[in-house]
Design goal:
The protein is built from 2 helices and 8 strands. By secondary structure, the chain is α/β, with parallel strands linked by helices. Strand 7 (108-114) and strand 8 form a beta hairpin.
Length: 129
């Protein structure tokens, strides 16, 4: 078996799914896709050609809990520039925790924000070559 990515799927908890969907659609300027089951409501991030890493904002009646300080830190793709996404965060109801910061010339930039649900989420963009 070969692995192309360490991550294959992620889920970001929400308390208010409509509010979370509006936040992520606003900051990334895309549409999320609903996928609901009897026990889980999801708003999926777009996936190009259904390949690559996917994820969703979820509401699961307490199975997923938002956290500003605990658990893994997910880095979302902010190419071509982290700052483009950061510029939309506060107006959409979020809070910037770490501004655009260079990791290195080769590895690009990162930033961290708090979403409307209380989740600490990071952004990453790589230099254009």
């Amino acid at each position: 078996m070969s692995y192309q990515n360490a991550i294959s799927w992620f889920e970001i908890p929400s308390v208010d799914l409509d509010r979370a969907q509006a936040f992520y659609e606003t900051i990334f300027a895309f549409r999320m896709h609903p996928m609901d089951t009897p026990n889980l409501k999801m708003r999926m991030f777009p996936i190009e050609n259904m390949t690559g890493v996917g994820g969703a904002v979820v509401h699961s009646n307490g199975f997923h809990l938002p956290s500003a300080s605990e658990g893994p830190l997910i880095y979302l793709n902010a190419n071509p520039d982290v700052q483009t996404i950061l510029d939309r965060i506060e107006a959409a109801g979020g809070k910037i925790l770490v501004p655009k910061t260079e990791i290195s010339p080769e590895y690009g930039h990162m930033a961290v924000f708090l979403d409307t649900e209380g989740n600490r989420i990071a952004l990453h963009s790589v230099p254009q070559r």
